[in-house]
Amino acid sequence: MNSFLSRIPPVVKNLFIINLIMLIVMEILPGFGQKLENVLALHYFTSPGFNPAQLVTYMFLHSGFMHFFFNMFALVMFGALIERAMDSKRFLFYYISCGIVAGLVQMGVFAIMIHQYENMFTPDECNYIINQGWEYMKHGIIPPWPGPTMSMLNLLVNTPMVGASGAVYGVILAFGMLFPNQPIYLFFIPMPIKAKWIVIGYAVIELTSGLGNTVDNVAHFAHLGGMLAGVALILYWKHKGVFNNRWFF
Asked: Is 183 helix (H, G, I), strand (E, B) or coil?
């Protein structure tokens, strides 16, 4: 483990360690893990469980080992190169910014959906559903609502969002922009593909999946939000001459 970590630049290494510690705590202490999720996971703005710090803390929690593994694999694989290209301070700012924007974009999508359900109830009924639902869900209990519309309103507001995926998609985007022609081998395709085409492919898949209204518990618009934040930051830094024209897209 020490040899593995010694080859990783400091920000990526510490992000990996923090995420690993949080995963271990969540897995071996499920009761305490539930309390951590209530406090650190990102809840919708009108949920009683929301606080602004969650826009940062949510990206250090994961819903299980596979969720953690794929995010951290991509972070180490691509993030190490990006951190060396950007420098550590800039990379940390980039990573956190992509994660924050990812959360805000997903909350914006939820806002549209929540508004549709709120129109089906009076303000007092909405408050009751949200507050009572929070009391159940903070203990890991699904509220016994009599109808699907009440259940969906509660789930949209009170279901927490976790994971580094939005920030990691920003890192993948950065790799595609800083090293656009770098060949990448995917295990299911027998030939290398340039990084820029993989990034474009990821963006198309996330957009179509998000618009397809598939119920897969994946925050597709958060992934897109992380990528959009990455594009904005990298183009801004390019304009400022940060990368000295060492890349193209």
From this structure: strand
